[in-house]
């Protein structure tokens, strides 16, 4: 039976030495990926909204608000810095049959606490490993999407467990922190259904903030409901239903995490890669396209294909990166899908708006079975005005766990996100520090983000 005691004991047992070479390497890749994306989001309007809010309520402290030169509390830093990691929708994802959370939602919270506590890079990796293992196990064994809860309901538990570990809480304190976080901060799925707005990209930052706040409360002596999961009207009864986690101190769930090649929702990655390849290989003129048909799996059709709201009415960035019709249309027109694909000018182009109305998304049971077996399948047909139909079929994409990105791939992605802010020498220092993080202090790394 999964309990707060089990989670707390697991976190206290994970050490840098318990992690294999491949696990350490993948954690470093996720760290670099998260930092690059965060830098790329520093000038976003929504990031500025969160920053101004944090500035209003937060005082001075030991944790950096990345890119600002300012120090604040770990709670405020978790809120703002997680917004940077998450907002562009370019972050990593854990692929489970019933849930697809983003474990990198934990990174900024753990970094903030580790920075405040003066942790080493090796200790940071151990705490990040805890976050990825807990998030992955919850997604696999206790999906909540179908019961009306948002996936950041998992994040507040994983982030509290990992941040509490980084804070150095003892087992009982950590149980209290998890109990507070998991009882008080459960998020509704309405965030990602119907009309999508900017909260979609900030909900995980709120969860990270709440997790760190719960950790600080527990460290100051606040007791929490340690029967969070199994208690009467507790998490299992109300949120998830019965489940059991299989937590492993080797923390290999990070190996099942994908990284994004395109700035697009997770379930769109294979389809977008396919249509980009098709457009280039066949030299398709988008003005001649009469219809785009996507056959996909249940989750993609439900979340970004129209099952949870109209995905053809696209006016904003938040709607665009949650719409298969928009993402496929923009990718076909531009031959790419980047940050610039979500500017108002790009979204409202007549050609893209016309094309997205031709897109149909069809759920296929066979593809759903393949997805649940570990693939991310997509079949895209593009019909043009002379009757020709071009087809591409994909089982995965560059960045899927079966086709993981190399260090070279991730460094290139990092450079694409950070070139406007840092010169080559500074970018190289960040990359080198992350790759050798066990030989550095956490403070060495975050100091490079000013």
Q: Using only CA atoms, what is the Rg?
A: 21 Å
Helix fraction by DSSP (H/I, runs of at least 4) = 40-55%
Provide the residue-averaged pLDDT.
96
Number of domains: 2
What percentage of the residues does DSSP assign to strands (E)? 5-15%
Model regions low in confidence, pLDDT < 50 over at least 5 residues: none
Helix segment tally: 20
Secondary-structure element order, N to C: HHHEEHEHHHHHHEHEHHHHHEHEEHHH
Main beta sheet: 4 strands, mixed
The CATH class name of the largest domain reads Mainly Alpha
- First and last CA, distance: 44 Å
Look up the CATH topology of the largest domain: 2-methylcitrate dehydratase PrpD
Shape: globular
Q: What's the total number of strands?
A: 8
InterPro entries: MmgE/PrpD_sf (IPR036148), MmgE/PrpD_sf_1 (IPR042183), MmgE/PrpD_sf_2 (IPR042188), MmgE_PrpD (IPR005656), MmgE_PrpD_C (IPR045337), MmgE_PrpD_N (IPR045336)
Organism: Haloarchaeobius litoreus
Protein name: MmgE/PrpD family protein
Family: Belongs to the PrpD family.
């Amino acid at each position: 039976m999964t309990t707060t005691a089990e989670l707390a004991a697991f976190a206290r047992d994970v050490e840098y030495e318990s992690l294999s070479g491949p696990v350490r390497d993948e954690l470093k890749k996720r760290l670099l990926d998260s930092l690059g994306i965060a830098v790329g989001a520093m000038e976003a309007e929504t990031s500025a909204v969160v920053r101004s809010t944090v500035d209003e309520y937060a005082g001075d402290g030991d944790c950096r608000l990345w890119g600002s030169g300012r120090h604040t509390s770990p709670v405020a830093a978790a809120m703002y810095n997680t917004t940077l990691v998450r907002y562009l929708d370019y972050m990593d994802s854990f692929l489970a049959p019933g849930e697809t959370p983003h474990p990198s939602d934990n990174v900024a919270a753990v970094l903030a606490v580790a920075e405040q506590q003066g942790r080493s890079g090796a200790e940071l990796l151990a705490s990040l490993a805890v976050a990825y293992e807990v998030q992955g196990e919850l997604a696999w064994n206790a999906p909540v999407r179908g019961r009306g809860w948002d996936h950041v309901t998992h994040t507040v538990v994983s982030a509290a467990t990992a941040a509490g570990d980084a804070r150095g809480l003892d087992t009982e304190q950590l149980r209290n922190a998890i109990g507070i976080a998991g009882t008080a901060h459960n998020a509704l799925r309405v965030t990602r259904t119907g009309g999508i707005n900017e909260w979609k990209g900030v909900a995980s930052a709120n969860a990270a903030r709440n997790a760190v706040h719960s950790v600080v409360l527990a460290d100051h002596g606040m007791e929490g409901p340690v029967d969070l999961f199994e208690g009467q009207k507790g998490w299992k009864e109300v949120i998830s239903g019965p489940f059991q986690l299989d937590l492993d101190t080797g923390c290999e769930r990070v190996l099942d995490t994908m990284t994004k090649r395109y700035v697009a929702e997770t379930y769109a990655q294979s389809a977008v890669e396919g249509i980009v390849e098709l457009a280039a290989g066949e030299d398709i003129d988008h003005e001649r396209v009469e219809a785009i048909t996507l056959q996909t799996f249940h989750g993609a059709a439900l979340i970004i294909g129209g099952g949870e709201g109209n995905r053809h009415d696209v006016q904003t960035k938040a709607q665009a990166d949650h719409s298969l019709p928009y993402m496929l249309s923009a990718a076909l027109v531009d031959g790419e899908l980047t940050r610039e694909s979500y500017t108002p000018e790009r979204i409202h182009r007549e050609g893209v708006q016309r094309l997205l109305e031709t897109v149909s998304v069809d759920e296929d049971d066979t593809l759903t079975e393949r997805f649940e077996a570990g693939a991310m399948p997509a079949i895209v047909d593009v019909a043009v005005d002379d009757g020709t139909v071009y087809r591409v079929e994909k089982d995965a994409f560059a960045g899927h766990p079966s086709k993981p990105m190399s260090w070279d791939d991730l460094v290139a992605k990092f450079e694409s996100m950070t070139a406007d802010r840092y010169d080559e020498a500074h970018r190289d220092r960040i990359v080198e520090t992350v790759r050798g993080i066990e030989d550095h202090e956490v403070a060495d790394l975050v100091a490079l983000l000013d």
